[in-house]
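Figure 2 data, in text form.
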Amino acid sequence: MTALRPRWRVAVLTLAAATLLPAPLATAMPASADQGAASAHGEVGDSSRDALRLLAQPPFPPTDLSLLNTQSYPQGPPMRPAPPREITAEELVKQLKTTLKPRGHRAVEKGLAVFRSSQIATVVPDLNLRAALASLAGSPARASIQAIRGGVFHRVFFGTPPNPAATAQVVVGPNGPEIIFNQRFRYEDFRLLGVVLSHETLHQDPQVNDNEELINSALQLAYYGQLLLKEPQVATSRTELSRRHNTGLVALLNTRDARGRQRLTQSTGNVLPGNAVEVLPSFGAAFLGITPDGGTETDPTSTPGNANLDFFLRAITCGQQTGAAFNTATVEVLDCRQAWATPSERIRLARLLKLRIPKPPSRPSHREDKPWRAPASPPKPGNPST
């Protein structure tokens, strides 16, 4: 594996595909989790306009560091994974039904079928991890289920990944690719583990580059945001894994332009305000690095994609992408068009994560829409979600 810049999640396997043309920049609209290409629905009236005015302001600083990780905010309380507890099939089925019901009857049926499948149990024997996979039914990440069912991965299990700091890692075992979840997170909420699984199942060949980690992380956190809109209590458990996810989502939510539109590689300020470790000019800078003038670097390399990537992209962008690769073109698509939440929903998430949202300006901002640049000679970007 080629040495990579510090990043939030480590993976040993990768993917990518053909070139994408960036879609027109659009105000984000949420993707419907129960439709193939995820249709968008918009909000009209003053609520959406008021939300955009709030989002057009500089990145929102956190007010409760117990929700965020200590790598980015070391002044916060120590992080601890969920404590040991008994996990039963009956309990997981009940929780799965609660999670999947808002996605429709078919999502419930398919999720429970995944959880009870003897074929899938041979690949994912752990009950909590199998519930994590089942929780993706009816979501933008549901193609992950087919990746497991189709034999892309030989095994998914708890163990010790090669990088002990990783939440999960894809490795090549003697019988093919395997996903090793850090046993430290054995008792975490299966919905949090499902978010991780949505990322790792996108890694399907031995190549990996910075674009891939950025794209996978952006997609996984977009799905996490959608999950929290339905089940906000997942974000406030304050376990180590929830705090890792929350920090990544804060950086993503804060990566927006002067018109309040969701972006990936440019913003109007440090996307982790008050961070004692680093200055990040965008979510993407955590993976691609920072240019000498304080912008976001690019990665000229490309790795091949797969059907899982195509489906996930269509769901999050409400586009028609096919043959996507892990390259700059795909990064640009996500920078120009993320459709996983409305402006009002992004404000809801910011409030859930206890970000300080200032009062809206008395008049709409007419600031020039230029990307913000980090101060000269910024610290090397670290890993916001670890």
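Caption note: DSSP finds 13 helices and three strands in the chain.
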